[in-house]
Amino acid sequence: MARGLNAAGIGMTSPRTRARMVARLREKGIRDERVLAALAAVPRHQFVEEALASRAYEDSALPIGFAQTISQPYVVARMIELLLEENTPRNVLEVGTGCGYQAAVLAAIFPEVYSIERIQGLLERARRNLLGLRLANLRLVHGDGYAGLEQAAPFHSIIVAAAAPRVPEALVRQLAAGGRMILPLSAANGGQRLVLIERNGRGFRESELDPVRFVPMEAGKA
Ligand code: SAH
Predict the structure, then answer these.
(1) Given the CA of residue 164, which atom of ligand 1 is nearest to it?
(2) From CA 210, how far away is CA 115, in angstroms rounded?
(3) What are 136-148's pLDDT values in tens digits?
(4) Domain definitions of the chain by residue range
(5) Which of 33, 103, 148, 195 has its CA at 20 to 30 Å from residue 93's CA atom?
(6) What is the distance between the alpha carbons of residues 70 and 60, in angstroms, rounded to a whole number?
(7) What's this model's pTM, rounded to 2 decimal places?
(8) 12 with 54: CB under 8 angstroms?
(9) What is the third-level CATH fold of 59-211?
(10) Exposed, middle or buried by CB within 10 Å (0-12, 13-18, 19+), for 131?
(11) pLDDT recorded at residue 13
């Protein structure tokens, strides 16, 4: 594979480097073995520009073009761990495909993955990044995540990679009974928090979790 070759030459993109990243995630408190195995399997350096490949296994967000970023590995792991708690993975909807990294991690865990991206150019880039991984259970869709994905709903799990000011209503409607949604919400003071929404027989339970920093969720396709 041509991408990341230079960095591979100095050992910065090897499976061993990735294994060290996973060991650090474990130290930071990620416990779910399904999540750790998926992060150990997906070559994150193939989702960033060649010039950044040597930094792909640092635990940080990196630019991916179109003023967007690839999510920090710890945050990807933490959010998926929260989705899976006490749960067997079923179908999942991701809002904000970006470069496709988290979509690939999800596809290593969930039997059925849908991912929506509003920026066409980014979705094409994600398709290219994902090509070699041959993930037959992953569907990428160009669309506005504020509308969710009616044709594939309901979803047992929903994960949002961009911060909205409030929970998008369509996503709440498309959450299956017994399902979970994890998303960053932005507050008026500019801060953001992860919010977990659980749908049970009678209604919804909402819990506020860690402070985070995501790009804003924007309306409409681009
Ligand atoms: N999941 C990515 C992170 C992407 S950053 C990863 O693995 O690293 C968040 C993405 O959400 C951006 O690509 C942005 O364009 C997208 N986004 C923002 N608002 C959106 C919306 N309403 N619908 C779909 N995607 C949206």
Answers:
(1) 19
(2) 24
(3) 999 999 999 999 9
(4) 59-211
(5) 33
(6) 9
(7) 0.95
(8) yes
(9) Rossmann fold (3.40.50)
(10) exposed
(11) 80
